[in-house]
Amino acid sequence: MARKEKVDRIVGNDMDEVEQKMFLLKIEYEKYFSGIERIEPLREREEIRRIMRELSLEPMTAATQRFRYQSLKARFQSLELYWTRNLIQIERGTHPKMKFRADANAKLATVQPEALSVEQQEVLRQRAEKSEREERAYKLVFDKYMEARAKCGQSTELSFEAVREALHKQVRLIKSTYQTENVKFRIMIEEGKAKVKAVPQ
After folding, report:
1. Are residue 84 and residue 157 in the same domain, yes or no?
2. Is residue 34 part of a domain?
3. Distance CA 96, CA 78 (A)
């Protein structure tokens, strides 16, 4: 009886922790979608997933605890669906808040240079240079990856856009996990297959 009460108490504490972390994570994602935070809180999201997996293995004898777990699980799944939908919109450039900023930047870019302040011209120049650097970096990694795949006898019928999107997702995960802005790609051969891995710097 004492062991059962101890287990129930631990499970209850874990559910309290999940509820608190879920509340904080919801706030962090709203900050990310609003552009306040630059890095997606993937590490915190994975932590909740881990706790939920562990809870699913616990023998919950109390009906109230089973109901609470199912409620938490449903709420988290609903939030993940919402976050995923927003992330897809961001990737496609159709997210309302991101689109507003993109439209504002586009309007700024169409203004004649002489109508801009020195600071605004410098911002535009830096943005253009950063975009060009990122595109060149992705293209270089893509070329090396295709070369490695060819040497391993793998298909090279992959589009640059598809590989770039996959690499971009890796970068987003690395930045969130390690709280860094610098990520480097490495081409590796594992079990006779070429792979690209993003590593924090």
Report:
1. no
2. yes
3. 20
